[in-house]
What does this fold into?
Amino acid sequence: DVKVTQSSRYLVKRTGEKVFLECVQDMDHENMFWYRQDPGLGLRLIYFSYDVKMKEKGDIPEGYSVSREKKERFSLILESASTNQTSMYLCASSSNDRARGELFFGEGSRLTVL
Amino acid sequence: AQTVTQSQPEMSVQEAETVTLSCTYDTSESDYYLFWYKQPPSRQMILVIRQEAYKQQNATENRFSVNFQKAAKSFSLKISDSQLGDAAMYFCAYISNFGNEKLTFGTGTRLTIIP
It folds into this structure.
């Protein structure tokens, strides 16, 4: 089975702190994604990556950056956390060999910024 | 830009009954895919069912089936014989078959199963 693992299920940070959210997938997927999930807003794409060292902005990239140094790992970085970044963050991956749009998700990281 | 609309923030159904979740979408393209994803409480989101736009036949996966109305841009999910394990957030999603398009999700419907 495909496994997408997010390093932290729950985090509490203070305003201005730098935050790292890590995501690792074990199925050699080419594509990785970071989404933000908020009630009433659904899932919104922050960044995605189609290859190592490659990244593209999604719909809401402001205040975030990403890093993909290895194929299996995709990190989301909040350079200076703010209270409006309190949210659930979902990592996902997909393979070019599988059905288009079929994503495999991690369990999510719930971030609270105080 | 493509949009996906789920007009029912919450739904409930008696165990063993049937429930239908609604989804509409807006696109100018003719070749695309539609999905229903399920997110159980505190668990990973998983793919429930997938529909290819060029296929007229509605997709079915066990107790889950869709009613795909391409002209109306409607894509509803029917869950038959509802079970307690069906309680979850359900997200409708769209992706074009062209270029490097990404999934566009609806806002979700929270389904409660009443024992």
